[in-house]
Structures are given as C-alpha cells and as structure tokens.
Design goal:
By secondary structure, the protein is an alpha+beta fold. The protein has three domains: 8-129, HUPs (Rossmann fold, 3-Layer(aba) Sandwich); 138-196 and 421-441, no CATH class; 230-415, Alpha-Beta Complex (Isoleucyl-tRNA Synthetase, domain 2). It has helices spanning 8-22, 51-69, 85-94, 98-116, 131-146, 201-207, 217-227, 267-272, 275-287, 341-350, 392-406, 425-428, 436-441, and strands spanning 35-37, 73-75, 79-80, 126-127, 150-160, 165-167, 172-173, 176-177, 186-195, 229-239, 244-248, 259-262, 300-308, 315-321, 332-335, 358-359, 380-381, 409-415, 420-421. The strands form six sheets. Strands 10, 11, 12, 13, 14, 15 and 18 form a seven-stranded mixed beta sheet that branches. A four-stranded antiparallel beta sheet has the order 6-5-9-19.
Length: 442
Amino acid sequence: MPERAYDHNQIELKWFERWTRGDLYRAEENSARPKYYVLEMLPYPSGELHIGHVRNYSIGDALARYKWMRGFNVLHPMGWDAFGLPAENAAIANKRPPREWTHSNIAKMKATHRRFQFSYDWDREVTTCEPEYYRWNQWFFLKMMERGLAYRKKALVNWCPECATVLANEQVVEGCCWRHEKTPVEQRALEQWFWRTTAYADELLNDIARLEGGWPERVLTMQRNWIGRSEGAEIDFASEFGPIRVFTTRIDTIYGATCVILAPEHPLVAATADAARRARAKAMVDARATKKPDDLAKEGFFTGAYAVNPFSQERVPIWVADFVLMSYGTGAIMAVPAHDERDFEFCSKYGIAIRPVIRPVDGALAVPASMKEAFGDYGILENSGEFSGLASEDARRKMTAHAERAGIGKGAITFRLKDWGISRQRYWGTPIPVSWRMCRSS
Ligand SMILES: [Zn+2]
C-alpha cells in the first residue's frame, strides 16, 4: 500500500475509539442551554441494519450535530421497537425464546449502529419489550380509559378456525390463513378495544388549515379525504321490520330513490333474509378480509322485503350489497341511480329502476333509457312533489327541515374517519392492562 493511501479501516477505528471514550453526545439534565430533541425512529430488531436505516439515521444525525454546534443541549436517543407478533413468529420459526432472540438481534444491531458513530446518547436507550418502558404505554392506556377514549365494543376481526385465534391483516393471504393455506379466514364479531379517534374528527379537520403553506396541498387534500366529513341527513324508510335509517348527502334526490341497500352485516339483514340469503351476506363480509372497499365487485341481492320512501310514500325493494359499509353513516343507503355513479352501476347491473329527478340548470331532465352515466351535479328538482322547481342547495335545506318537522329524519354529519381498532395490539406489542375480571365487572 502506498504510504499516503487512505486506510479507512484503521482511521475509522481510531476515531471510533476516541469518540466512544469521549462520551460526546450525552444530553445534560440541568442545562441553561436551549433544549432540542431529535428522534428518527426506533428500528425493529430483525437482526441486521440495512442501507435504508443508514439513510434515515444519517439525516437525523446531521440535524442533531448541527444543533449541538449551534449550542443546543440536544437529546438524541436510540432504542428498539422490540415487541409483538414479528418477534413471536421469528421465535417460533427459530425455535428460540422470543426474549433471547430479540436481545441477540439488538446486540448485533447495536454494534453496527455504534460503528456508524451517530450522535446518540446511549444512556437513554430504550427497549420497548421491557416493562420499564411499556409500563408507560399501559399508563397512557389507563388514562385514555378514564377519559372514555379507550373503550370496548364488538367488531369484526379476521379469525382462523384452525389456529383459533385472531389474525392481523398481514397474516391473511388471499383470503386464507398464512399458516393454514387452505383454511379460509372468517370475519367474526368479537369484543375489541378501540381508540375514540372520532372524538377529534372536527379538531383534526379544522387544524389542517394551520398546515397550509407549509405542507404540500396534495397531502392536505389526502388528509381531508381521509377524515371525510360529509354533511347530509339521516332519513327513516319504514319497513315491516322497523325503520331503516339511511344517511345521504343528497336528500334533494330522494324522489329518485329506487331501492334501499343495506350493508351485509346490517342487523336488519338477519331479520329480512332467509338462511340462504344470510349465508350470502356472511360470505360478502368474509370477502372483505382480502379486498379494499374500492375493489369490491359491487354485488348484491334482493332481500324479498320492501321499504317505504317517507317523501314519496313509494314502496321500494330492500337490497344487500357488498359496497355498503356498516362503518360509514348508518350502514344503509337509499340508491339514487340517476344521480350517483355507483348506484347507477349497481342498479343498471340488476335491472333496478332509474328515475331522474334533477335536471341541469340549463337543460332538460334525462331520459332513463338513454342515460350512459349518472348526473351527479346540483341542478333543479323535478317530479319531487312540493319541492319540484327548487335548486338543489335550497332543496337540501328545506327537505331536511321538513324531515325534522315530520319526525322522519334529521340533519347529520358523518365522517369517513373511524375509531381505531387496536386489538391488533398483539401485532404491536404492549399488553392491554385490563384483566378479564375487570371487563366483566364493569
Ligand atoms: Zn391458521
């Protein structure tokens, strides 16, 4: 080797030892300097750091060093996201206790991490599967419970009858259990824990305005759509099984409703349908384990029963369809095929009547036989009883007020945002700090 060649092994080792001895990056507890906290994320101890880690941690490291040099008292900690199902499964596969497997991975990864000489205060290292860490998660959980933000209710989960256990979405492969490739996963209603995310829906939505200018508009739009606030009305359609409450954002189109569609898990499905139909509804629910709402086939069936449109007094058939979700609105909709594209597709497929009741401001009412798509815009009401001739915006207000006066419905706001089911906690780790005895007595 030429005399002045750069021997990175030797030089890096020299500085590694020097910097390690120097204890350079310790955050001070009582410091007059301004505080700065840098946390990238805790890696999951899979056994090796990869180049994606290096990229991520280099960025945080650059920021932390910059702040040190600017005179800040920087807290830059590191730790291990070390709990949950991946560790459990790796332990089963490797036939080693999860604790042993996890800790040996941490030791390996920590050695690599230290050689990078990122500016961590290793005195602050945390390992999330240790009680001294997760007791704080549990403490948070109990505080949330006290405030009604953590609660239990029955909800559908992925269930493998072979394993006799709940599966995470990641463990369902093409509708079957990942351990039992020929066993179809069922959707079962079990008691689940939830965070009441919806308590913050309005606050989340309103505060997006504070990010304007700083965040890309595209991201803000995605956030708004994810919260999905819809202003509309809930209206009761009478039926022999009791009222069916539907949510609609377009009450102005209600004279064009030609059927009522229930989510397959709607409680009335059990009352309206015979055994064969109930089995069909259950199959639709099970199929959701593998499909996103947008990928559903838009399939449905007639229940054999009818409901009454409270505005027109018309008798309309009650259907069940896979694309109606129990978790959105009331779990039931009125289908207005002439003015909603999805309803148009569904009703065309099954030969359900299409009846236009809104015409464009500057045009005539569509003729059903020649319609190629729904007319989804606002316009002027036609064939809508006393509301005919009103503009959509005006009609929405007046028809909602009428429904409230007549006791057949009310103005309502609904969110796409749902309460967050955390029963996959087995996947993430921290045990829920509530015993069965506590659950039963409450
Ligand atoms: Zn299984």
